[in-house]
TrEMBL record:
It catalyses: (2E)-tetradecenoyl-CoA = (3Z)-tetradecenoyl-CoA; a (3E)-enoyl-CoA = a 4-saturated (2E)-enoyl-CoA; (3Z)-hexenoyl-CoA = (2E)-hexenoyl-CoA; (3Z)-dodecenoyl-CoA = (2E)-dodecenoyl-CoA. Pathway: Lipid metabolism; fatty acid beta-oxidation. It comes from Cavia porcellus (Guinea pig). Pfam families: ECH_1. This is Enoyl-CoA delta isomerase 1, mitochondrial. The gene is ECI1. GO terms for molecular function: delta(3)-delta(2)-enoyl-CoA isomerase activity. One of its GO terms (biological process) is fatty acid beta-oxidation. Key enzyme of fatty acid beta-oxidation. Able to isomerize both 3-cis (3Z) and 3-trans (3E) double bonds into the 2-trans (2E) form in a range of enoyl-CoA species, with a preference for (3Z)-enoyl-CoAs over (3E)-enoyl-CoAs. The catalytic efficiency of this enzyme is not affected by the fatty acyl chain length. PANTHER family: ENOYL-COA DELTA ISOMERASE 1, MITOCHONDRIAL, ENOYL-COA HYDRATASE-RELATED. Its main location: mitochondrion. Its EC number is 5.3.3.8. The lineage of its organism: Eukaryota, Metazoa, Chordata, Craniata, Vertebrata.
Length: 299
């Protein structure tokens, strides 16, 4: 097992400091006789079935799988490893935290930090999305918990979404409820999924949909009993993997390239927009009030 702290090179020649200790000794991980492998990093658990060519990433950043910079760093590394290893043709995204798929962006990364931190954080968010959205693998989201905002974006970036039938597991882009604005590429992905009118309605009101509503609006493809989420994701995956890779990948790229290029061509401007927006006093105040409300909810 090798614990490393190094640098990860991202697009545009920028680097993201790998702060976390990440286990890169994946290949040395437990390898069962049945072709099952298990990679371990602190916040991202990767299980894989080599024979089937399917990997499962389980988010493991308790309590709510918020997309902290450390989580994103580990996640991007795991995604890259899987993408570059031609063994894997399919990837299931799910959560190891009971009842929560992902609470979205980590609000603590967006509050009370300096401008360089906001820029670094936003670059990591962009990178995560581009890697997910343009993955050559089939991505199936097995959504086993609440999935607001950035959590919803991760699910929307998959090729197919299976949601557990539990009214507490709401999904949607709720940014306006926090007094912030979903960036244009979040909006584009939502429009591509549920259409312009439904997206406009959902985005302006910051709607979080219960499973039956999410199915109705087309935000998810299937709603199943909670104990069938993983098995359903697996059988969907098998169906998708029956399609020849080259044909499916070219089709996926044809459908998604324009949306991704829209961000790629203005990545730096998008970072600057985020930094100047999030560092405004009024936005800092909104985020702090929202975080405080979340904390007080318990008491
Ligand atoms: C012009 C425009 C230009 C540029 C763009 C500008 C702006 C940027 C937009 C960025 C887009 C943003 C996307 C996002 O993802 S923002 C995050 C949105 N997320 C949420 O609203 C979810 C908030 N959380 C919840 O609703 C609940 O926590 C949840 C997930 C339903 C779970 O509920 P529960 O199990 O009851 O757990 P608690 O609420 O008690 O939470 C436990 C613990 O976690 C803390 N926490 C929750 N969510 C977050 C989070 N997103 N970030 C950080 N911390 C979070 C919560 O405060 C509790 O902490 P404690 O210390 O009290 O234990």
């Amino acid at each position: 097992m090798a614990l490393v702290a190094g640098r990860k090179t991202f697009a545009a020649g920028k680097t993201l400091l790998l702060r976390a200790g990440v286990w890169l000794g994946a290949e040395a991980a437990a390898r069962g006789g049945n072709g099952a492998r298990r990679f371990v990093s602190q916040r991202v658990l990767v299980e894989s079935d080599v024979t089937a060519g399917i990997a499962t990433i389980k988010f493991k950043n308790p309590p709510v799988n918020s997309l902290s910079l450390e989580f994103l760093t580990e996640f991007i590394i795991c995604l890259e490893k899987l993408e570059n290893d031609k063994t894997y043709r399919g990837l299931i995204l799910t959560s190891d935290c009971p009842g929560i798929f992902s609470a979205g962006l980590d609000l603590r990364e967006m509050c009370g930090k300096n401008l360089a931190h906001y820029a670094e954080y936003w670059r990591a968010i962009q990178e995560t999305w581009l890697k997910l959205y343009l993955s050559n693998m089939v991505l199936v989201a097995a959504i086993n918990g609440a999935s607001p905002a950035g959590g919803c974006l991760m699910a929307l970036s998959s090729d197919y979404r299976v949601l557990a039938d539990n009214p507490r597991y709401r999904i949607g882009l709720n940014e306006t409820l926090l007094g912030i604005v979903a960036p244009f590429w979040f909006k584009d992905v939502l429009v591509n999924t549920i259409g312009h009118r439904a997206a406009e309605h959902a985005l302006q009101l910051g709607l979080l949909f219960q499973p039956t509503e999410a199915l109705q609006v087309g935000m998810v493809d299937q709603v199943v009993p909670e104990d069938q989420v993983q098995s359903t994701a697996l059988s969907v995956m098998t169906e998708w993997l029956a399609i020849p890779d080259h044909a499916r990948q070219l089709t996926k790229s044809m459908m998604r390239k324009a949306t991704a290029d829209n961000l790629i061509k203005q990545r730096e401007a998008d970072i600057q927009n985020f930094v100047s927006f999030v560092s405004r006093d009024s936005i800092q105040k909104s985020l702090q009030v929202y975080l405080e409300k979340l904390k007080q909810k318990k008491h």
